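Researcher: Please generate the 3D structure of the following complex. Treat every line as part of one assembly.
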Amino acid sequence: MNNERTPGLEELQERALARAVARLRSGVMATVFGLTCGTGLWIATVWLLVRGGERVGQHLSLLRFYFPGYSVSWGGAFLGFVYGAVAGAVIGYVLARVYNRLADRRAS
Amino acid sequence: MTSPDERRTLIAGAGPAGLACAWELGKLGREAVVYEQDEVVGGISRTVSHDGYRFDIGGHRFFTKVPLVWEMWGEILGEEFLERPRLSRIYYQGKFFDYPLKPLNALTNLGPVEAVRIGCSWLWARAFPEREERNFEQWVINRFGRRLYEIFFKTYTEKVWGTPCTEISSDWAAQRIKNLDLLAALKNALLSSGSKNGEVISTLIDRFHYPRHGPGMMWERCRDRLAEGGIATLTGTRVERLHHEEGRIVAATVRDGAGERRVPADHFVSSMPLPALVRSLDPAPPPEILEAARRLRFRDFLTVVLIVDKPDLFPDNWIYIHSPDVRLGRIQNFKNWSPEMVPDPSTSSLGLEYFVNEGDDLWSAADDELAELGAREVEQLGLLAGGTVLDSAIVRMPKAYPVYDEGHREALPRIRDYLLGFPNLYCVGRNGQHRYNNQDHSMVTGVYAARNIDGGAHDLWSVNVEQEYHEEVHTGEAEGAAAAGGDRLTPRPAVAPSLEKRLLAAFARYDPVALGGAVGAVAALGLFLATAVLVLRPEEPKGPTLSLLGNYLFGYEVSWAGSAVGFLEAGLAGFGFGYLLARLLNAMISNAETTLRRELEMARILE
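Model: Done. Output below.
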């Protein structure tokens, strides 16, 4: 006669899983973005230097407007690695913090 | 057989809850008596007659997901049940909007400018929802955005409840508004037969069942069938006092045309309004309970019936009137509910519904004035189609809707806990629980009360506590409910936190809106800064290379104005990119989860 049904553990697990929202760890994001951007800029610079030519890195060198002292040269490649790493870390960190904040607000 | 007053199980109220309880008791072979203070049965689900014209107080579709209710309706009414097409629309600023809202229809009616405003307002609400959903306004804005709320919810809701939306509890919204947010509604409108994991989503109930002579027919037939089985329904009999001793109800004092008498009781089922029940207790409850009962409020209801000399006025069963320039809240076209509601096919009858408070100006107005007001307003709305009003009638229905306000939130649990101290007292129905149940949920409370009297242990107060109401039928869910006999009415236990943490770590999804917002913010700020740096530098021309972005971002250039344009457009592009990225990631996570499940399944089989 009892028509009530209590959901089983499996059903509850499914519901909890459906609700779960991932969070980004800002430290990890800063590290990953920093390393990726730093290495990326280093490779991009070195690639142009290895290829050579008349006007090496005409466009990439415009990054000097944002990264003072940067140029398409061996020294610039290492400086670019540092700049890229710092900029990437900032981007990754901000991205994670903004995402987590928005996700928290929406979840609450 | 014992006389009615010696049945020992007394039921107060012959509405759907009380009569369903009596019906179930009859099936269980138990005796009972039903007391009804009015002369008619059905409560608010009654049918009122005037010169052969029949009226429904509020419009009662017979729709349920609870199998036992459906079976009971069938047993009582059999072939007198009609299946009727449903059309209901919203009238706003001279236009008709489909109800339930269909986004494409709504956006077409509102025009492109308003559509953009609505879209922006919805995006904003999704990105920055109200943290706390305490009131109706917060609940709706979080799901539909502020603009849609102002157009489709605010005016009508305030008309119905007579209070600002900020003072109405969010419980009501969760219970009564369709569980569709704007995105879900758009999906539904664009994909006519949405299917996900075998679950067909049919969000719009476009047909419903209805007794041939209105809802009262169901309850009149129920009363007659009960009488045949020996369960009497005594109309014109009011429960005045409820006597209790040592924590049990022992008797009720009832009053009818012959005077008062005391009736002994083993069980008492009450669909009386909760404040009236509390006040009737003898000895009186503690002062804080009486005070809590005083804080429960009701909204009352008044129907102006107009009989018009036109066979067809409009195709709707009912129309919601959102226009703030009339006091009218809703119009019923009774003929479209059942052709037999109208005796003369060359005429129509309209029910003009006004939401009022007992004793206010409309409630107290003379019938002639109300008829005149109704005719004027329906003419003003252009719904009379050139017809002439032949006759009118006024129906006043007190305590039609329990009000979910801040007072109710605190007072109701206090009263409920106190009444639960009486093991042989069962509160059922809309007013009996001060809960905005439809008649199916009210009936379930009555049936469960009967089963408890027969030795069951159902928690009557947990019926219809599910937050979202049920107008969307997810077929899979309905089948599950049917298999379990209406499982959705049961409370849910909490999930173990350690399990939840593990699940979070394993297969949590990314929030697309949050990731979109984050990428958008970073992209917008990044382009703004990149542009600003170049603008501030002395070289000319400024940023010829970065200006090439103008090929992709409309109106962008390296200037202060361009930096603002770039900020907006890069923000939008970033949002789209982040949103899609999250969706893609989630799809991959879902895929990984499915693969793991299959592997586990296979491992189990091999074991």
